[in-house]
Design a protein that fits this description.
By secondary structure, this protein is mainly alpha-helical. The chain contains seven helices and three strands; from the N terminus they run H-H-H-E-H-H-E-E-H-H. The chain has a three-stranded antiparallel β-sheet. The protein starts with 6 loop residues before the first helix and ends with a helix.
Length: 146
């Protein structure tokens, strides 16, 4: 920590959280860029891997991505052959997105990259501390989503 940073800031968990979030965002962005991808790509592919085919709106809700950003990211993933769009048989106005075999390979590649980014970001923390931090951050997220 910079010795010139006021204690009034360094004692605020919210300030520390935003400072570390900016650092983590940079590392994650650089990691995905090395794999020719963006964080939105990983989030969408992870959602498809875990939950299977879904509408664009459902993907947006599950991955916490704004609807307009979902469309742009899916256009990129589709152009690269990682997902396919097809009309929803139950509602022709909607598309169903399905991950391709190439998309599953890309997801594995991006999972490795994000794992390395997590190691870099949380290097000073023990496995126990990382698990505790994840639990605490999850509680905060759940509370603020309600």
């Amino acid at each position: 920590m910079d010795e010139q940073t006021p204690t009034a800031l360094t004692q605020l968990p919210s300030w520390l959280l935003t400072q570390n979030a900016a650092y983590a965002q940079r590392i994650v962005t650089e990691s995905f860029a090395a794999g020719g991808a963006r964080a939105y790509h990983f989030r969408l592919l992870a959602t498809l891997v875990e939950f299977g085919p879904a509408s664009q709106a459902t993907l947006g809700r599950r991955s916490s991505i704004d609807r307009s950003d979902v469309v742009a990211a899916l256009n990129e993933l589709e152009a690269d052959g990682y997902v396919e769009r097809s009309p929803d048989p139950a509602d022709g106005r909607r598309n169903i997105i399905t991950i391709t075999t190439a998309g599953k390979r890309q997801y594995k590649k991006l999972s490795t990259l994000i794992g390395k980014a997590q190691e870099e970001i949380f290097a000073p923390l023990s496995a126990t501390d990382r698990a505790r931090l994840t639990t605490i951050l999850g509680k905060l997220r759940t509370y603020h989503q309600e």
